[in-house]
Amino acid sequence: MVSILILFRLIWPCYIVKEINRHFSLIPILRYLLIWLGLGALVGILAGSASAGFLVLLDWATQTRDSNLWLLTFLPIAGFGIGYIYHHYGANSIKGNNLLLEELYLHKNPIPFRMTPFVLFGTIFTHLFGGSAGREGTAVQMGGSLADQLTKWFSLDQESRRIILICGVAGGFSSVFGTPLAGALFSLEWMLTGKFKPKSIFPAFWAAFVAHWVCELGWGIGHTHYVIAELAPFTIPNLFWMILAGVAFGLSARLFSETGHWVGYGFKRYIAYPPLRPVVGGLLVIGIVYFSNAYDYVGLGVPRIVEAFETPLPWYDFLAKTGLTGLTLGSGFKGGEVTPLFFTGATLGNALSLWIPLPLALLAGCGFVGVFSGTTNTPMACTVMGMELFGYEAGVFLGIACLVAFVVSGRNGIYSAQRISTRFKLPY
């Protein structure tokens, strides 16, 4: 009897492992984890390091421009250089973030490595000479471009390539803003194509956190901190006021998207030679800035965003930033849209505090992520980003602002290749 018990104790664990493996396929799961632990870490290292170098150069460009405002005079010349290089050597890199979305959907061609240096230096020169642009697009394009090189190195299949692109976007977004949870969710939500595929979850989050650690801890690159000093009580009237604010954020998001599309369409229609488009755009930007003394609206505009959380600002700030950013990017300069969206949303929230009885910083914070949500169709990622940046206590208000802005802004965001209609059945 004792021998039987001993034998049973020896066999029982093997039986359990065998049964678990039979029902849950442990070996494929372990293989999946090992593969994506390695690939996700590699993508995170590449994206985080690229973002770190980019942020250092961007800080240099911003400080140099602010100390030498005469550099704005050369914005048209810089525009011609950027346009010429992209037109003659950029190939399909000129599509930017839309190229990442197209490759995720259609899997036509590998994303060229040249996208990384082209968008990096194109963005730096745009900021150095006074264009109104952001940084998210640059980080996401670098992350996606670098990640897609692994497709060739490791001979990845179509499904694995889709995941590696998502990892690149997650790593780029996470490291440039210091928000790993939002970076992972943004890549999953932004690149969602109809049916959600759970295999993307672990690689996206792992790559996002690795990229964040590499950029912030490995390279010592810090990020801007924003503070919502005062919250409002969770009452029905306050939630109603936030819904109204969300409507305003959604309309602002729609205006931002339409402005960029309209300006881009106009330049393509009336100026046949692409390198001349940013020349004309640059002349218009510096003319507006010089004659209206609108230096607060060039570049990223981060100091103005910080001010929006602290003190009342002119009500028209969000309109000025929308117009200059649309003119800059629509004419062919390089950079992202997200930081200008933060500027637009935060200053709009600041202006709404004159009519909506909620704390100024709370409205600025909700606008910060709300307008972003409306233009990128990513309400979940934007809500989480707000909680990472401002604290989880404001989560309910942030969520309402992002969801309402997403619904009000409509189907078309800033990315023309995004297939929003296959993801959500909207009532319009």
From TrEMBL:
Keyword terms: Membrane, Transmembrane, Transmembrane helix
GO CC annotation: membrane
Subcellular location per the Swiss-Prot or TrEMBL entry: Membrane
Main location: membrane
Key word Transmembrane helix present: yes
InterPro entries named in the record: Cl-channel_core, ClC, ClC-type_chloride_channel
Molecular function terms, GO-annotated: chloride transmembrane transporter activity
Highest rank taxon of the organism: Bacteria
Topology of the protein relative to the lipid bilayer: Multi-pass membrane protein
Residue intervals passing through the bilayer: 32-57, 69-90, 111-130, 163-188, 200-219, 239-256, 276-295, 354-374, 394-414
Name recorded for this polypeptide: Chloride channel protein
Organism: Algoriphagus sanaruensis
